[in-house]
Amino acid sequence: MPPGEERKNKRLIGFWAQKKRYRSNKNLLPRASEFVDKTFDPILKELILSYIELETKSANFSKGMSNCRFCKKMIGSYDLTDGEYLFPIGYIHYIEFHNVVPPLRFIRKVKKYYKEKR
Q1: Strand partners, 85
Q2: Which of 8, 113, 10, 16 has the alpha carbon at shortest distance from 63?
């Protein structure tokens, strides 16, 4: 598969601007802090993290190591996909440790996945 082919037709989430919003590939990248919710439901968070662990695969992209925008920890160098969404491996860190809430559309997909698994 040619480089970048896996990225086509995917919904990109978890790609952040360094300090302020900026344009990259004609898209405006948000700041991670815009998605923090200190009241993020811990049960929903676990469902999301579980879904990512079970239903994603490596998309084999690398633009070098990434650091967390909050704590500066090294958090990865490749992307994951579930076939519809594409996000950096470090997105898991943001959800788990910094209460970054995924988009509502992604949350609905996770809830539907678990509802259908019953």
Answers
A1: 11
A2: 16
Instruction: Please report, for the chain, the start and end positions of each structural domain, with discontinuous segments joined by +.
Output: 5-117
Tell me the whole-structure pTM to 2 decimals: 0.87
Write out pLDDT tens, residues 59-118: 876 678 899 999 999 999 999 999 999 999 999 999 999 999 999 999 999 999 999 987
Q: Write out pLDDT tens, residues 46-55.
A: 999 999 999 9
Round to whole Å and give the CA distance between 80 and 48. Answer: 14
Q: Residue 2: how many CA atoms within 13 Å on its side-chain side?
A: 2
Q: Is 16 exposed, middle or buried (0-12, 13-18, 19+ CB in 10 A)?
A: buried
The closest alpha carbon to 34, from 108, 105, 109, 102, belongs to 102
Cα–Cα dist 117/112, whole Å: 9
Structure tokens at 58: 């490596």
Answer yes or no: are the C-beta atoms of 52 and 92 closer than 8 Å: yes
